[in-house]
């Protein structure tokens, strides 16, 4: 929806101005969505409060705070107050037509804290024939890819490659998604002929285990010229045409941040939204804010961990869950059968990433769990035995690329092993090495 000079993308929960993402809290976004839907009519206060705080009894001051935030974003005169009744938008509101596909987004839950990522990734996909969306397990690669707006030439297919382990399975998945199965074994030539009739965007999702097998397939697709390819993976393809967009964890508010400001950080906004989804009575209030921020910090802003944590809040509460962070690898889990096995617990997600590593990469990663974090390259070399510096740097590069280590530039460059990864790696050391 076009609101004055702003673009409101309801499915992606994204607000932009002149193509640039605008920071907005989840509740303020919900208020704006109702106001836009009611335009040019007034939205009653009761209607707004029911939509934004479903099932909760809240003071009218909470609504006034969100209106104030919106006026700071949209302009002081953008929202008119109808005394005693409600509010209405003073800006022109139009709905983008489906013919251009400009405002369409994929179905699915709303994104939180990813407005800038969505805008930047969309631009990369438009401008380059091959884009790799990389990042560790549970970082939200698939969710972001699902929310990409369809290009004018339309999305050709979205192919989930998580269960593929060989070339035959890969080609079958591609042929099935493209409805080009034929009668015999699928081959690249048949796929190319089919793609020649249907140019567009091809999304190859969860390509972790078949990234190397994808290389010749993607090279031929790109040689065809009409197809743009987006690959989500922890293991990049290393092709010359490849543009890599590395997804990072959601932003975590610093301790002491006010409630209104804290909700502008993606990690806290996601945690609060998912907690409300599991219990409509949940409300993120000032008394629990410090614990919520600390929980986001301990989970390093990882979307999957925050989703799993939100499901435990109705039974444990924020403080109770925080007290069990030493058991996070098993406490943060779900038995829901609709969730892929690799995402049913925080342990499973990290184990998926660990299994993708070569033995020497696994060994180095576990070594880092012996060090205090953050640590320097010199600290690692000191405990690395006979491994040479060149090989050590190669291994570190792989771990950073796959989100298993974080490299921080600064006056003293250093590496950080996140707390959840540290717990997993120490468990491996105890089991395998006996450390």
From TrEMBL:
PANTHER family linked to this entry: HTH-TYPE TRANSCRIPTIONAL REGULATOR RV0890C-RELATED, REGULATOR-RELATED
DNA-binding region per UniProt: 1-91
Pfam families to which the protein is assigned, alphabetical: AAA_22, Trans_reg_C
Keyword field contains DNA-binding: yes
Signal peptide extent: none
Native source organism of the sequence: Pseudoduganella chitinolytica
All copies of domain OmpR/PhoB-type, residue ranges: 1-91
Keyword field: DNA-binding
PROSITE patterns noted in UniProt: OMPR_PHOB
Claim: DNA-binding is one of the keywords in the record: yes
Protein name, UniProt field: Winged helix-turn-helix domain-containing protein
Family matches, as InterPro entries: AAA_22, OmpR/PhoB-type_DNA-bd, P-loop_NTPase, Sig_transdc_resp-reg_C-effctor, WH-like_DNA-bd_sf
């Amino acid at each position: 929806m076009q609101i004055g000079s702003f673009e409101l993308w309801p499915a992606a929960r994204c607000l932009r101005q002149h193509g640039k993402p605008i920071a907005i809290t989840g509740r303020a976004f919900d208020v704006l969505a109702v106001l836009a839907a009611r335009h040019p009519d007034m939205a009653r206060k009761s209607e707004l409060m029911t939509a934004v705080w479903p099932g909760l009894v809240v003071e009218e001051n909470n609504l006034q705070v969100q209106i104030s935030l919106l006026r700071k974003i949209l302009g002081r005169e953008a929202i008119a107050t109808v005394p005693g009744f409600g509010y209405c938008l003073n800006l022109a509101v139009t709905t983008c037509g489906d013919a251009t596909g400009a405002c369409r987004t994929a179905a699915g839950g709303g994104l939180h804290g990813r407005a800038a990522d969505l805008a930047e990734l969309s631009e990369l996909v438009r401008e380059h024939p091959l884009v790799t969306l990389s990042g560790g397990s549970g970082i939200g690669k698939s969710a972001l890819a699902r929310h990409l707006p369809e290009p004018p030439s339309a999305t050709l297919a979205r192919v989930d490659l998580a269960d593929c382990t060989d070339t035959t399975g890969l080609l079958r998945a591609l042929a099935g998604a493209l409805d080009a199965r034929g009668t015999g074994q699928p081959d690249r030539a048949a796929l190319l002929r089919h793609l020649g009739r249907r140019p567009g965007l091809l999304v190859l999702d969860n390509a972790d285990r078949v990234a190397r097998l994808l290389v010749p397939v993607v090279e031929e697709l790109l040689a065809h010229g009409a197809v743009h390819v987006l690959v989500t993976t922890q293991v990049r393809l290393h092709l010359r045409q490849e543009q890599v967009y590395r997804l990072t964890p959601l932003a975590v508010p610093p301790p002491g941040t006010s409630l209104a400001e804290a909700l502008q950080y993606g990690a806290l906004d996601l945690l609060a939204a998912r907690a409300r989804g599991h219990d409509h009575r949940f409300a993120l209030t000032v008394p629990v804010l410090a614990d919520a921020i600390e929980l986001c910090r301990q989970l390093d802003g990882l979307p999957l961990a925050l989703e799993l944590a939100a499901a435990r809040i109705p039974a444990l509460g924020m403080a109770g869950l925080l007290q069990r962070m030493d058991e996070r690898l098993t406490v943060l889990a779900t038995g829901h059968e609709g969730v892929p096995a690799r995402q049913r617990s925080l342990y499973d997600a990290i184990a998926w990433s660990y299994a993708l590593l070569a033995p020497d990469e696994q060994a180095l990663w576990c070594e880092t769990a012996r060090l205090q974090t953050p640590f320097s390259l010199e600290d690692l070399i000191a405990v690395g035995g006979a491994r040479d510096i060149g090989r050590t740097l190669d291994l570190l590069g792989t771990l950073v690329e796959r989100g298993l280590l974080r490299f921080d530039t600064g006056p003293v460059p250093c590496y950080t092993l996140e707390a959840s990864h540290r717990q997993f790696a120490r468990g491996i050391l105890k089991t395998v090495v006996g450390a």
